[in-house]
Amino acid sequence: MRKFVAAFFVLIFMSIGIPMTAYATDCTKDSLVDQFGDWFGNLGKKENTKKRNITIRKANRLADCTEKQAKETPKAV
Predict the structure, then answer these.
(1) Which residues neighbour 34 within 8 Å (Cβ) at sequence distance 6 or greater?
(2) Radius of gyration of the chain from Cα atoms?
(3) Does pTM surpass 0.70?
(4) CA separation (Å) from 15 to 20, 62, 63, 67, 77?
(5) H/E/C letters for each residue in 20-61?
(6) Is residue 47 within 8 Å of residue 59, measured between CB atoms?
(7) Nearest Cα residue to 20 out of 68, 53, 56
């Protein structure tokens, strides 16, 4: 039963992320998965460290998203 519950939660977690990556999204907005990752990654840390880590993670996500969009955009000849 535990394996079924664990597999169910993994399936739900994966299905939340699929639609967000399948469509063009605004790079500046954080998704629910991003917010959860920021919260979980900073659990139990001091406030200054949390702010710094969240800022770094947002900057990395923004850079990755813009790089991905630049690769997907057809090049003008």
Answers:
(1) 57, 61
(2) 16
(3) no
(4) 9, 22, 24, 24, 38
(5) HHHCCCCCCCCCHHHHHHHHHHCCCCCHHHHHHHHHHHHHHH
(6) no
(7) 68
Joined tokens for residue 52: 């710094």
User: Residue 75 carries which DSSP code?
Assistant: P
- Relative orientation angle of helices 47-72 and 32-41, to the nearest 10 degrees: 140
- Under 8 Å between Cβ of 57 and 38: yes
| Residue type for position 55 | T
CB 4 within 8 A of CB 20: no
Q: What tens-digit pLDDT sequence spans the chain (77 residues)? A: 788 888 888 878 777 765 544 556 678 888 888 999 999 999 999 999 999 999 999 999 999 988 888 887 776 55
